[in-house]
Amino acid sequence: MRPVTMSATMGCSYPPVFVMDAGGRQYLQPVSRADPALVPCWNFPPARSHSRRGSCGGLNAAVASVLVMVLLLVFAALGFGAYQIFQLQNEVLQLKQYVCVFELILIWCLFSQQENAQNKSPEKLIDLRRPDAERAQRGQVAAHLIGGRGKSGDSLVWGPRVGRAFTSGVVYRNNGLLVNETGLYFVYSRVEFLDNHCSPRDHLVHSVHMRRTDGHPLTLMEDHREGFCVVGKEQVWTSGSGLGSVQKLQKHDFVYVSVSDPAKLSHNFQSNYFGLYKID
């Protein structure tokens, strides 16, 4: 028969074990204390360890979710910024195209206006508006001065750069023209006198002079105006004087104009002029 055993918790002595044989006799069976102790069922450390591992895993999942959301937001912001940059680039390209088209239209308009002005202007035919250096390169020697002013007995002061006035191949200096080349020149001058007071003895003199390097002045042309005054009438009177002739001038000759009464000169610049041009 099998023995019946009883056990207790660790730390307590085992109770005696009685064995009964086939004859009904009982005797004490010694209990071996080498049997291993049983593990109680209320041992909690493994359960606690499992609980801690579960909580750490939940925390890691939450952090990972937050990081994923942050990365998604960053990528979304980068994508939106790239889209905005792309839109700005397209707008800049369109603006450049508009600017190029506007520049082409403006250049075409300016070119058309310049071409029309050149075709319609008579200055293109007589070549009066070209720069002095270009005229000198082409061999044109000429000058035209307007608006004479001055004192009695002195040379008139002219405007070499007023209105249509110009100089080419000659130099305007000391109220006259200095010739740089020897040759035949057509010299001309016109003045207009205007006043509202006069006497029968009044006369006006208009002269063109030339002075050479030796310092002696020569009169090239001269005009006397008389009989322009009407006695007894208080009204404005005018009288014009024009001179022109071909003169042989030498290099460094100085040509100038004088009048007897500069105070009576008209204030109309186009009525008072002086010039020359080389014909040979």
UniProtKB/TrEMBL annotation:
Q: Which residues cross the membrane?
A: 58-83
Provide the GO biological process annotations: extrinsic apoptotic signaling pathway via death domain receptors; immune response; positive regulation of canonical NF-kappaB signal transduction
| Alphabetical UniProt keywords | Cytokine, Membrane, Transmembrane, Transmembrane helix
Cellular localisation: Membrane
- In this record, what's one Pfam family? TNF
Major subcellular location class: membrane
Cellular component aspect of the GO annotation: extracellular space; membrane
The leader peptide range reads none
THD domain mapped to chain residues = 141-279
Give the InterPro entries listed for this entry. TNF_dom, Tumour_necrosis_fac-like_dom
Task: List, in alphabetical order, the Gene Ontology terms for molecular function in this entry.
Answer: cytokine activity; tumor necrosis factor receptor binding
Q: What family is this protein classified in? A: Belongs to the tumor necrosis factor family.
Q: What is this protein called?
A: Tumor necrosis factor ligand superfamily member 6
Organism expressing this protein natively: Chanos chanos
